[in-house]
C-alpha cells in the first residue's frame, strides 16, 4: 500500500536563456506575432522567472529548475548549409535568412510545459515515472528542442530504476506533440492512480473530425494516443478530447491557454472543448467521482479576454496547508472582466481559495504565462530523493542563479544582436557554468558547434 499523501507535485520551471528575444515565430500565437521586433530583456526575463520559482519554494512547494538550451543552435544552422567558422555561420545566416537565424536563437525552451509529457509512477503499468520529450514539429524553432531537452531531463531524472525516458514521437505532422501543455492529470491524491486527460487539436487519420480554419492545430489525436500507449496508462484511466477549433482560431494554440486542472478540480472556459458534455461525462466516469468543473461562461470572460489576460494559463496548486491557490499573471489584474471574475471566484467557495499574482511580462509577450513556464512532475519520496538534487530550488540556489544571470545576461537584445559572435560566446560561457551549478554533465555538446 502506497503512502499516497507523501507524494508531491513538483513544478520544474524553465530558466530563461541568454538569447531570449521576440521574433514573431509562432503563427497562431497572437502575443508572439504582436511583439515581433520588440527589444527583449533576457536579464529581466530570467529574473522574473526566478522570482516565481522562489515564491513557490517559499510557500513550501517542491520547485525545480530546468536549464535552457544552447542557443544560437550552430549545429542546426550548419545542417541548413551555412559554413565556415561560427562567426561566418552567423553572418551568412543573418544575410540570407534572418528568420532562420532567429529560429535558431530562440529561447523558447523556457516554456517547459512543452518540454515533455510526464506520467507519474502511480499511473503506469511498470510503476515507473515516464517522460516523452515533445517533438514540437509544428514550429521549426521548437522542433529543434527535443534532443537537448531529452538529455537535460535524463541528467535531472537520472536513475533507471525509477525513471523511463522515451524518444520523442516521429517527426511527422501526423504525430505533432506539444507535451504537457495539452495534458492534464486528474486524481484524488497525487499518489493514487490518476486520469490522463489528453487534448488534441486535430486528427491526422480521421479526416471527418473538424479542424481550425485560420491557425494550425499543433497536437494530433494520434500523438496523444501514442503517448498514452508508450507510458502504459490503463485504457479506462485515459480521456481524449478535442479542443474546439474555433478557439484555436481565436489564438488558443495550446489547451493550457483555455483550461487548467489539478487533482479533482478543473477551471476551463465554456468554449474550450468540442462536445463538452461528453468530455465532462467521460472525465467523471474515469475519475469514479465527479470532478469539480468550474466552467467560465463567455458572458463573464470572453475567449478574447482569456487569450489577452492568460487567465487559464495559471497554475492551480495544492499548497502544503491543503488550500488551493491559482497563480496568475499580472495581466489578469489589469483586465477588468477577468479581475472581477477572479475576485468572485475566490469569494464563492469554489474550491479555489487564494490568488497569487506574478509579473512575467517578458515571457507573456511571447505567449508564455505561469503555466507555460513549468513542467509538473508528481514524485514519490523515493523518486524525489533519487533525482538530481542540484536542480531543486533552495534559498542558496536562488541566490546563485540570480548572480549567474547578473554576470552573464544582457539587458537588452534586438534582431541585430543575434548574429553577434559575442552573444554566442557569452551564452556558452554562461551555460558551461550552469552545468556545474546544476550538476548536469555534458548535456550541451559545445564542441560540435565549432568548425
Ligand atoms: O510555442 N512562443 C511559444 C509559447 C509557448 C507557450 N506554451 C504553452 N502555452 N504551454 C510557442 O508559441 C514565440 C517565439 C517568438 O516568436 O520569438 C514562441 O515560441
TrEMBL record:
Cross-referenced NCBIfam families: arg_catab_astB, PRK13281.1
Annotated HAMAP family: AstB
Organism (species): Vibrio halioticoli NBRC 102217
Protein name per its UniProtKB record: N-succinylarginine dihydrolase
Pathway noted in the entry: Amino-acid degradation; L-arginine degradation via AST pathway; L-glutamate and succinate from L-arginine: step 2/5
Keywords: Arginine metabolism, Hydrolase
Enzyme class: hydrolase
Molecular function per GO: N-succinylarginine dihydrolase activity
Claim: Cytoplasm is one of the keywords in the record: no
Gene from which the chain derives: astB
Protein role: Catalyzes the hydrolysis of N(2)-succinylarginine into N(2)-succinylornithine, ammonia and CO(2).
Domain of life: Bacteria
Family: Belongs to the succinylarginine dihydrolase family.
GO biological processes: L-arginine catabolic process to L-glutamate; L-arginine catabolic process to succinate
Amino acid at each position: 500500500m502506497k503512502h499516497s499523501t507523501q507524494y508531491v507535485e513538483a513544478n520544474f520551471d524553465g530558466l530563461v536563456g541568454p538569447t531570449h528575444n521576440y521574433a514573431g515565430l509562432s503563427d497562431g500565437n497572437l502575443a508572439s506575432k504582436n511583439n515581433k521586433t520588440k527589444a527583449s530583456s533576457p536579464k529581466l526575463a530570467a529574473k522574473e522567472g526566478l522570482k516565481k520559482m522562489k515564491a513557490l519554494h517559499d510557500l513550501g512547494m517542491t520547485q525545480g529548475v530546468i536549464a535552457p538550451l544552447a542557443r544560437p543552435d550552430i549545429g542546426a544552422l550548419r545542417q541548413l548549409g551555412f559554413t565556415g567558422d561560427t562567426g561566418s555561420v552567423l553572418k551568412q545566416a543573418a544575410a540570407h535568412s534572418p528568420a532562420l537565424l532567429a529560429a535558431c536563437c530562440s529561447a523558447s525552451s523556457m516554456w517547459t510545459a512543452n518540454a515533455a509529457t510526464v506520467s507519474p509512477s502511480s499511473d503506469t503499468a511498470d510503476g515507473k515515472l515516464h517522460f516523452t520529450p515533445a517533438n514540437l514539429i509544428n514550429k521549426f524553432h521548437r522542433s529543434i528542442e527535443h534532443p537537448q531537452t531529452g538529455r537535460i531531463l535524463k541528467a535531472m531524472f537520472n536513475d533507471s530504476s525509477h525513471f523511463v525516458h522515451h524518444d520523442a514521437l516521429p517527426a511527422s505532422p501526423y504525430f505533432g506533440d506539444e507535451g504537457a501543455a495539452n495534458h492534464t492529470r486528474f486524481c484524488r491524491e497525487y499518489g493514487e492512480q490518476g486520469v490522463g486527460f489528453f487534448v488534441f487539436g486535430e486528427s491526422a487519420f480521421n479526416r471527418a473530425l473538424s479542424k481550425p480554419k485560420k491557425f494550425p492545430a499543433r497536437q494530433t489525436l494520434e500523438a496523444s494516443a501514442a503517448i498514452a500507449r508508450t507510458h502504459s496508462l490503463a485504457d479506462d484511466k485515459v480521456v481524449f478530447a478535442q479542443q474546439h477549433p474555433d478557439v484555436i482560431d481565436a489564438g488558443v494554440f495550446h489547451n493550457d491557454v483555455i483550461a487548467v486542472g489539478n487533482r479533482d478540480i478543473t477551471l476551463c472556459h465554456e468554449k474550450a472543448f468540442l462536445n463538452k458534455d461528453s468530455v465532462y461525462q467521460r472525465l467523471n466516469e474515469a475519475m469514479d467521482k465527479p470532478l469539480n468543473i468550474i466552467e467560465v461562461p463567455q458572458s463573464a470572460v470572453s475567449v478574447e479576454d482569456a487569450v489577452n489576460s492568460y487567465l487559464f494559463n495559471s497554475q492551480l496548486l495544492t499548497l502544503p496547508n491543503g488550500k488551493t491557490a491559482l497563480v496568475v499573471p499580472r495581466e489578469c489584474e489589469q483586465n477588468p472582466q477577468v479581475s472581477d471574475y477572479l475576485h468572485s471566484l475566490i469569494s464563492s467557495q469554489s474550491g479555489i481559495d487564494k490568488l497569487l499574482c506574478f509579473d512575467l511580462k517578458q515571457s507573456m509577450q511571447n505567449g508564455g504565462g505561469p503555466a507555460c513556464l513549468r513542467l509538473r512532475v508528481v514524485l514519490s519520496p523515493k523518486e524525489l530523493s533519487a533525482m538530481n538534487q542540484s536542480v531543486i530550488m533552495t534559498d542558496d540556489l536562488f541566490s546563485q542563479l540570480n548572480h549567474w544571470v547578473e554576470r552573464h545576461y544582457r539587458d537588452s537584445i534586438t534582431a541585430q544582436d543575434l548574429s553577434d559572435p559575442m552573444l554566442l560566446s557569452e551564452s556558452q560561457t554562461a551555460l558551461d557554468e550552469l552545468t556545474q551549478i546544476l550538476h548536469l554533465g555534458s548535456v550541451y555538446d559545445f564542441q560540435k558547434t565549432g568548425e
